[in-house]
What we know:
- The protein is α/β, with parallel strands linked by helices.
- The protein folds into 2 domains: 13-204 and 313-399, Alpha/Beta hydrolase fold, catalytic domain (Rossmann fold, 3-Layer(aba) Sandwich); 208-307, Rna Polymerase Sigma Factor, Chain: A.
- It contains 9 helices and 15 strands.
- A 9-stranded mixed sheet has the order 1-2-5-9-6-12-13-14-15, with helices on both faces. The chain has a two-stranded antiparallel ribbon with strand order 3-4.
- Helix 2 (176-187) links the parallel strand 12 and strand 13.
- The longest helix has 18 residues, at 382-399.
Amino acid sequence: MRVRNRATIGENVAISESAASPAPGGTSDSFGARLTFGPDRPLRLDSGAGLVGYTMAYQTYGRLNADRSNAILICHALTGDQYVTDANPYTGRRGWWDLVVGPGKVIDTDRYFVICVNVLGGCMGSTGPGEVNPATGRPWALTFPVITIADMVRAQAMVLDHLGIQQLFCVIGGSMGGMQVLQWASAYPERVFSAVPIATSVRHSAQNIAFHEVGRQAIMGDRDWRDGNYLDHDVRPRAGLAVARMAAHITYLSEAALRRKFGRKLQNRERITYGFDADFQVESYLRHQGSIFVERFDANSYLYITRAMDYFDLAAEHDEVLSRAFRRTPVRYCVISFTSDWLFPTRDSREIVHALNAEAANVSFVEIESDKGHDAFLLKEPEFHKTLGGFLGGAAERRGLKKP
């Protein structure tokens, strides 16, 4: 059967589909499929709180086969969304992994059924701090409960339950998406046939937490943040969110990539101005990244999702013995890192591999030579694409999935 942005309605679950344009952090319907889980299906959170009547937005691509064995869940990163390929109806741009996902591509939608869910706490249709709290009729803002990576994965599992998918052929993700992959494989090993964590870690480093805190303080220091209640005042902390994005964006690149792309080249001028305009191209580039980001992302969602990443620590959940997170795992793993990634350096991936080896897991590991930094997994990297395609092809043969 062909499934695209829709699913059969199950008991106690309602689905709402809309073509209306959402405002980030607003209350209007998002694009694509949305599932709202009834009051008898509450989501229990790690904090001890619970969500009732929560909504998850998602996109699907391709055909779900008769025995529902060809489903791939793609987990998006911090500022990603469910639009992995084709046009994003909100931004008008191509999906964030259009290079990799689609007919005849590495993740071939002629062969696989691809699902991507906007994470809990996000701002593209899933319940988050910008949505309306049904108990008050006002945006959740900072009354929204703090969430974790594990909470995000539990919510995704509810979506898969609704779609009738008991086991994923593969779960794939980079950066924060990779954290979700590891959580999936650890918490639901029986539901995952194979897993590809990319450019990720089992915990956030002190340096990464520090960068996130700089971003959060930039947002909270913006006078338009209004203690998180900016939507009640019809304003948004644009300046603070833009600075947060600029600081984070630097961590996604490498020094070599910045030097190659910008160096010390001036922006539309022949000499420096002895002022504080964007004299250098790299300054102009970062300002542009900040300005377009505030048009598509919610500031409070940024606070909540970065905090979820900071709290993630798979070893801590298992008495600081990481291998216990993968005890007797049946999952096939392919762990991928990039040489120039200093946000999640290769040593983080090796730690994952060592833990899996301690459990005699079926794991392969590849470090891709690249000077593009952390974002290499989003860019044109032929060796990475070859590695990912080869792993999926081999796993598909073991799974008995037919070629298109």
